Amino acid sequence: xxxxxxxxxxxxGPPPLFDGLADVAAFAxxxxxxxxxxxxxxxxxxxxxxxxxxxxxxxIELLLADHGLGxxxxxxxxxSQLLAVHPAYDELADGLAPVEVRGNRLARQARAEQDxxxxxxxxxxxxVRKLAVFSGGLAWPYFYPYPPSPPQLFxxxxxxxxxxxxxxxxxADAANVDLCFELHPGQDLHDGATFERFLxxxxxxxxxxILYDPSHLRLQHVDYLGFIDRYHTRIGAFHxxxxxxxVSASRGVYGGYAGWLDRPGRFRSLGDGDIDFRxxxxxxxxxxxxxxxxxxxxxxxxxAHDGAAEGARFIxxxxxxxxxxxxxxxxxxxxSGTDIDxxxxxxxxx
Length: 350
Description:
This protein has 350 residues and is an alpha/beta fold. The chain has twelve helices and ten strands.
């Protein structure tokens, strides 16, 4: 596992945040980050329309090299979410879309597909092998069974989701890029069961991977350590993001429509929540995860700059350098069949 990397989406904006890749790169490098996860929705940071411009690609590579940084992943959650939007969320989803396609569902979806293909192409040109995505959500408004929905509704929703994503997965395969689905409430793929259901409908596509983010699993009360045991072969990216769940007498997992500060389940800066990162890093290392440990900072209390500084150190301290020799190797002996029988007291004992 490599790290630390920083997902820079939360660091793009007006001062004290940054509006250009060079500035945010300098900030990240100064804190000890070694790579960036770079979103592709803001052309000030990365312009997907220039994926076929060798001079532009070289410019990005040189800028990052000058700061001693690599790219861990590109991130296309916003545009990928727009591939599948339930009408109940149209107005909110329009806020993620370019102005020229707002208010037109078909145009918005077509533009999302175009932009996602551009993101895949840019990842290929930059030799980045992981692209973070959301699945979109057609069935999400029906997630709680009252009044109960017909089973065919979910069958149809997932069949449509598979139809939408199959060509995107094929395009990613041609570009040698994995699409890493961030399993996230609000998306149809939000836990292991929904990912499995989708995977079965896209013929277990080799490019369909998981962006493992324990914070979203924790707030759903999913066994996020057991999740690694079950799905480690599909984990392609890792958001190191903390969270906590404080049991409340008045609110549950849905939060009572409260803001983040007042919810029982809250996102926190690394080390301030209750997620077992020692267990997570140990399990991912055990299974040979060879991607990046990427900080995604979101916290209802702490300042973003402090969260980044502390997060870089936190990840560095949790990276595990795998031993080359077992601790008891010097005491271990080999034995022939006769030796083994004698040790067990079998045979004639000689």
